[in-house]
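The record is kept unedited without comment:

——
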Amino acid sequence: MIPGVRHTELVILAAIGLMVPALPALFDGALSPTAALVRFAIALVLCWACGAVLEGLIDTYGRQARQRQLEERLRQLRAAHDVPLDPHGTERRGGRPPVGG
């Protein structure tokens, strides 16, 4: 299976950017159009592969960061709702004894 990238326009722009140094040779006739197309195809494959790897890394670390934030938030919510009970089963707040006790 070929890994995909979400931003194909960036991959194409990067491949075009890699081809910019070859443009003068192409226009001067020192580089044939066939050779230029082969070079562009190679640049496109390289940029696609690098984009897929980079996107995979970013997705992996982003997923881990979101999971860690979720766990931290759940821990904070549990700590905020963890109110100790006195022996009568009522909530004890601020260290004061329950009324009538």
Notes: The chain has a mean pLDDT of 83. Helices lie at 8-19, 23-28, 33-80.
